[in-house]
Design a protein that fits this description.
The chain has about 400 residues and is mostly helical. It has a single domain, classed as MFS general substrate transporter like domains (Growth Hormone, Chain: A). Helices cover about 80% and strands about 0% of the residues. It is built from 17 helices and no strands. Helix 5 runs antiparallel to helix 6, helix 7 crosses helix 16 and helix 11 packs antiparallel against helix 17. The chain is globular, with a radius of gyration of 20 Å. The relative contact order is 0.16.
Length: about 400
């Protein structure tokens, strides 16, 4: 028993040690930002139950976030290559937070669409810039661990924010969520601007295990393997996004559990990620089991929708959340690192912009098509469709990872 505990402690120590100061600052920045992230998990519920938009219109409004994210990802990646990732991160957080606070004052479809789009346009430029910053300060062999460390900060914040946000929305009002979310974005921007003023980009050997150097000097839209990875990940992303839009609506309207339970589910998910992900990814990278771990992550996402075909139950809701969470633990940091490691230094921002544009497309099509599908065919049919889509994603990932492995040797 003593050896077990000492081995576990050593695993955690190894997983968290050795990160450069820049990564620690990026982690703290993300933690501040995500602790205030209270709007997005409840935005669909807010639009349908407070402003009384029908599901199809709510889906269109949520798609504004996706379109803004699409533009923000493109601009953020391009600007990162031109003016530097650090400046993009600070500007993105500040302007995104400002417009986020204003959304609460909009009630018409057009004004909501414009403000959600603008907030996302500025706020989502942060994502590719953050990935570029990681690539600037760590070698390829540590990319997954560094990204997982940042995701740890995301999920510490996310384990608290939805639970607190659900309580505030149910007890007080939704306007508090917009104020808190916007303010923490601006605080995070201020903190990062102060910390990063004197940083200089380190010379990092990113040539380790390089993948198709000849192809990687091309722009991403001419890199066939990279595009195939984006397609595989898009199908995963479409299903993954349902957990932040269709699933909360289903849990409240079909299963009858209010925002407090939705917040508890999301908060528990964040807690599990906080507890498990860092040592799990450290072990996966150390034992070179990245590819099978990615496939397990996709498979578990498919499993996460099966409990929704069963009778209403908190047990089934938590079982679904467990599959979703463990799947994300194995998939997200490793596929992020794979995308980062396939990008050349000179075009890292452009490659990361295409990667996050793929996720933006999932944000656009996921809620729009998902909620519209549900409105016409019902939740059960949609869950079956989503499971099948995730299985297709699994097959495509198998093909991609085999080609990636063959090209690396």
């Amino acid at each position: 028993m003593g050896n077990f505990f000492s081995g576990t402690l050593r695993l955690y120590k190894d997983a968290y040690s050795g990160h450069p100061r820049e990564i620690w600052v990026l982690v703290m920045l993300t933690l501040i930002n995500r602790m205030g992230m209270m709007v997005l998990p409840f935005l669909t519920v807010y639009l349908t139950t407070v402003l009384y938009f029908p599901l199809d219109e709510a889906g269109l409004l949520i798609s504004a976030f996706g379109f803004g994210s699409l533009g923000g990802s493109f601009i953020g990646g391009k600007l990162s290559d031109r003016i530097g990732a650090n400046k993009v991160i600070a500007l993105s957080l500040f302007l995104g937070g400002f417009f986020l606070m204003i959304i609460q004052f909009a009630t018409s479809f057009s004004s909501l669409y414009a403000l959600i789009f603008t907030s996302s346009l500025f706020g989502e430029a942060y994502r590719p810039a953050l990935m570029v910053a990681v690539g600037n300060y760590v070698p390829k062999s540590e990319s997954g661990r560094a990204i997982s460390f940042i995701r740890l900060a995301i999920n510490i914040g996310f384990s608290l924010a939805p639970a607190i946000g659900g309580f505030i929305a149910a007890t007080f009002s939704y306007s508090w969520l917009f104020w808190i979310d916007g303010t923490t974005c601006i605080l995070a921007a201020t903190y990062f601007w102060i910390e990063s003023r004197n940083w200089s980009r380190k010379t990092i050997n990113r040539a380790e295990n390089s993948v198709l150097v000849e192809e990687n000097i091309r722009p991403p839209y001419k890199n066939g393997l990279y595009l195939f990875m984006l397609l595989s990940s898009f199908l995963y992303g479409f299903a993954f996004i349902q957990w932040f839009h269709s699933v909360p609506v289903f849990i409240k309207t079909d299963w009858g559990f209010d925002e407090r339970y939705i917040g508890l589910l999301m908060g528990t998910s964040g807690f599990l990620i906080t507890l498990i992900e860092m040592p799990a990814i450290h072990t996966v990278e150390k034992n070179k089991k990245i590819n099978p771990s990615i496939l397990v992550g996709v498979l578990l996402l498919a499993f996460s929708f099966i409990p929704f075909l069963l009778p209403p139950s908190l047990f089934f809701a938590f079982a679904a959340m467990f599959f979703f969470t463990i799947g994300g633990i194995f998939y997200l940091p490793l596929i992020n690192a794979t995308a980062l490691n396939m990008s050349p230094d000179e075009k890292r921002g452009e490659y990361m912009s295409w990667y996050w544009m793929m996720w933006s497309m999932a944000h656009i099509t996921g809620p729009t098509m998902g909620l519209s599908f549900i409105d016409k065919a019902g939740f059960s049919t949609f869950w079956v469709f989503t499971i099948l889509l995730t299985v297709i994603s699994l097959l495509l990932h198998q093909i991609f990872l085999k080609k990636l492995r063959d090209t690396s040797h």
